[in-house]
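Re-run with default settings, no changes from the original entry. Doing this only to confirm the output is reproducible before filing.
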Amino acid sequence: MQVYFTDPANPWQRGTNENTNGLIRQYFPKGTDFSLVSPDEIRYVQDLLNDRPRQFLDFLTPQRGIL
């Protein structure tokens, strides 16, 4: 597997990651104690985000965009 590491202090190199973090923070604010979050709650948010269309996937969802 090829792995890409961004340069420190260059958030523009982490666009998709930073955007996804922002989406996750809508459901789990910063400082959330994940030991108190059920696996079902995490799975629910995971499914919501994976069913969300993305422009860089030509408006397909991550679940359907990558073959």
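The chain has three helices and no strands. The first helix runs from residue 15 to 27.
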